[in-house]
Design goal:
Layout (H helix, E strand, L loop, with lengths): L12 E4 L4 E6 L5 E7 L7 E6 L2 E3 L2 E6 L7 E7 L2 E2 L4 E2 L50 E2 L22 E4 L1 H5 L13 H4 L2 H10 L3 E4 L3 E3 L3 H4 L11 E7 L11 H15 L3 E6 L16 H9 L25 H16 L5 E4 L17 H8 L7 E4 L18 E4 L1 H12 L5 H8 L3 H4 L9 E3 L9 H4 L35 H19 L4 E5 L30 H19 L22 E4 L8 H5 L5 E7 L17 E7 L5 E4 L9 E6 L10 E2 L4 E4 L3 E7 L5
Parallel strand pairs: 11-12, 11-20, 12-15, 15-16, 16-17, 17-18, 18-19, 19-20
Antiparallel strand pairs: 1-2, 2-6, 3-4, 3-7, 5-6, 7-10, 8-9, 13-14, 21-22, 22-23, 23-28, 24-27, 25-26, 25-28
Length: 711
């Protein structure tokens, strides 16, 4: 039998067809490519090196009929080593297949990972001859077959979604009901205790911090730390092997699929946080692991007049070149793979502005957007942008096109500032409560374009936000210089842990205020995993490198944490039950149906309408917002008109009590109290009449309703 056949240029990657494997690798500027096979028992031992005999449209390919799933492999790519011209080929360095569906392990650092001799006075301008194969994880040929059964995407409309951001390992690593060997894995996230917890919360989607295979930076490893968050990708098709309980030879892909299938069966969608803006290879002095050695000039944005160096819009040393058609193809092929083969439901794009850059400026009509919008698969899933990067003009909140939702950084900042006591006008808060029409209405988007959040993985947890006036990142080994600087001054008394009753009480109320604001706002709420149970990182607001108890969710609950958890569940249930809290269209502020009452109205404490002067006065810190549930210009799936209760949200951001005259004619139904952040346990039957002065405690949010049956 002939051992080497020409093979085909597509699909890219290593594809097993039941008889053998087709290997295909893009490299426009290479002069030759070798595929190297490694011993399964000793992954450091290269057992066969095959020169790929064919190149079609810059794709090198070969078919090996004797290769089976589980085979370990890598590439060696030949070509000029001329960094000053943008070429960095070095066949002494084994390279990861950009299309590998699994990797056998993680990078084991040594100087051999650099394409140049470390310490040489000419740095990266000199080629290094040391072989890097021993320390490089091997790409794995996998069998993609999987029994999906009757798996279906939950297809929860975005406007009905409640997103829960979590870390696969950190969320389950300390879970007491799971076996030790399963904790921190995809299998753990699919376990009954974890699924039951997520269902009990009422969330509709988990947004997973990066699960694409990533690299622990050498500088962190040398300090005994890890790249815990995972924003350092080296394999855009490979679920990270660290989170696999089942094995390293393709089992991680099956385990990931099982996790998705199980979450779907529970009605929970899976959204991936993806990092297509840069790779783990860093700047011109970084390691050669994959893309750099395969075709540096194609995969990366190089400085136009000095291609030895990289354009860095990401703060991570390089920027993936989404302008190049083959690099754009890699991104699109990866996205489609995760939807079609792994059944995920959407993506959150890290530093998405970097992907939109055609030349220098962020371009809303870039080829990246165009190709996604016309794609029959990707245009149908959830697309969420982190709408900024670190380059000039990179802050693009509100500027992404239709089909895209955005992390609304202005929402986070406004809500935090209001409850902290800053001189922020209630007009700014009102925009955020009502869906941020100032950001999203101008180009035809809807309120659900706004992904609202007050905390996320990057920054303080909710507990720490109200407990620390300064960051405490000493454990990161950078003398507390890293992470965003804060002077929060939440007026909660002393910083950090304290049992003083008045301090504890105020902190707990501020947590409730922030959660209630988030879950009662128009738009899509995103919670940071563990906030609902008082998770703390001990004041570390940049725990990207802390793969330990600082970051992991503690599953023990104090009495305070139990109350916060119950409060959060009740909040989510309220949101789920009331269509007027998750409208598909922006409010018009005019009379629509419902007895001539406006769809939204804003009130001052004396019961009068808000004035322009009051909107703009930064000292005004009390606000009433009435939502007319009888004036929702929307229909349900059956075409029936949607109606809801009349809801009234009262907010007192002052540190003094405030009386508030309840709106409505005296003959209208009494207002029922549904939620009061001053008293987290709901007191059944508490009502007040229209026209009555309702006493708001200091720094308190109250939600009331008039039942639609009585209107």
């Amino acid at each position: 039998m002939q051992e080497i056949w020409p093979g085909k240029p597509y699909p890219l990657g290593a594809t097993w067809d039941g008889l053998g494997v087709n290997f295909a690798l893009f490299s426009e500027h290479a002069t030759a490519v070798d595929v190297c096979l490694f011993d399964a028992q000793d992954p450091t031992r290269e057992v066969k090196r095959i020169r790929m005999p064919e190149q079609t449209d810059y794709v090198w390919h070969v078919y090996l009929p004797y290769v089976m799933p589980g085979q370990l492999y890598g590439y060696r790519v030949h070509g000029p080593y001329a960094p000053e011209q943008g070429d960095r080929f070095n066949p002494n360095k084994l390279l990861i297949d950009p299309y590998a569906k699994a990797l056998s392990g993680t990078v084991q650092w040594s100087d051999a990972m650099q394409a140049y001799p470390v310490g040489h006075p000419q740095k990266d301008l000199v080629l290094d001859t040391a072989d890097s194969a021993a320390g490089l994880p091997k790409s794995v040929v996998i069998d993609t077959a999987f029994d999906w059964g009757d798996d279906k995407h939950p297809n929860t409309p975005l406007y009905q979604s409640v997103i829960y951001e979590l870390h696969v390992k950190g969320f389950t690593k300390l879970h007491p009901e799971l076996p030790q060997h399963v904790r921190g894995t995809y299998a753990a996230l699919a376990s009954p205790p974890v699924i039951e917890y997520l269902q009990s919360l009422g969330i509709t989607a988990v947004e997973l911090l990066p699960v694409h295979q990533f690299v622990d930076d050498r500088v962190l490893v040398d300090r005994g730390l890890r790249n815990y968050w995972g924003y350092n990708t080296t394999g855009y098709f490979a679920p990270d092997v660290r989170y696999s309980a089942g094995g390293t030879r393709g089992e991680q892909a099956r385990e990931f699929k099982t996790m998705v299938k199980t979450l779907h069966a529970a009605g929970i969608e899976v959204i991936l946080d993806v990092v297509y803006n840069h790779t783990a290879e860093g700047n011109h002095l970084g390691p050669t692991l994959s893309f750099r050695g395969i075709d540096n000039a194609s995969y990366y944005r190089l400085v136009p007049n000095d291609p030895r160096f990289y354009m860095d819009f990401t703060g991570c040393g390089n920027t993936l070149n989404a302008v190049n058609p083959r690099t754009l193809q890699l991104i699109m092929d990866s996205l489609r793979y995760w939807v079609l083969e792994m059944h995920v439901d959407g993506f959150r794009f890290d530093l998405a502005s970097a992907l939109a850059r055609e030349l220098h400026d962020v371009d809303r009509l870039s080829s990246f957007f165009d190709i996604i919008h016309q794609d029959p698969v990707l245009s149908q899933v959830k697309l969420i942008a982190e709408p900024w990067d670190v380059g000039a003009g990179g802050y693009q909140v509100g500027n992404f096109p239709v089909l895209w939702a955005e992390w609304n950084g202005k929402y986070r900042d406004s809500v935090r500032s209001f409850w902290r006591g800053d001189a922020v006008g209630v007009g700014e808060l009102a925009f955020r409560l009502s869906g941020s029409s100032d950001l999203y209405q101008h180009n035809g988007r809807r309120p659900y374009a706004s992904i609202n959040f007050v905390t996320a993985h990057d920054g303080f947890t909710l507990h720490d936000l109200v407990s620390y006036n300064q960051k405490h990142n000493e454990a990161n080994g950078e003398n507390n210089r890293d992470g965003e600087s804060h002077n929060l001054s939440w007026n909660c008394g002393v910083e950090g842990p304290t049992e003083a009753p008045e301090i504890v009480s105020l902190r707990e109320k501020q947590k409730r205020n922030l959660l209630a604001t988030l879950l009662l706002s128009q738009g899509v709420p995103m919670m940071c995993g563990g906030d609902e149970r008082g998770r703390t990182q001990r004041g570390n607001n940049n725990a990207y490198c802390q793969d330990n108890e600082i970051s992991w969710v503690d599953w023990t609950l104090s009495e305070r944490d139990e109350k916060l958890l119950d409060f959060t569940k009740r909040l989510i249930a309220l949101r789920t039950a009331h269509p007027v809290l998750k409208r598909r269209r922006f409010f018009q502020g005019r009379q629509i149906h419902g007895g001539g009452i406006r769809d939204i109205a804003w009130f001052q404490p004396d019961g009068s309408d808000m004035t322009e002067e009051a909107w703009d006065n930064g000292l005004v810190r009390t606000l009433g917002m009435r939502l007319n549930g009888m004036a929702i210009e929307e229909t349900d799936e059956r075409g029936e008109h949607i109606t809801d209760d009349m809801l009234l949200l009262l907010i007192n951001g002052n540190d003094q009590p405030q009386g508030f005259k309840l709106p409505g004619p005296p003959t209208s139904p009494r207002w029922e109290v549904m939620l009061d952040t001053n008293t987290p346990e709901l007191r059944e039957g508490r009502t007040a009449a229209p026209g009555e002065i309702f006493e708001l405690h200091p720094r308190t949010l109250v939600l009331l309703r008039q039942p639609k049956e009585l209107l």
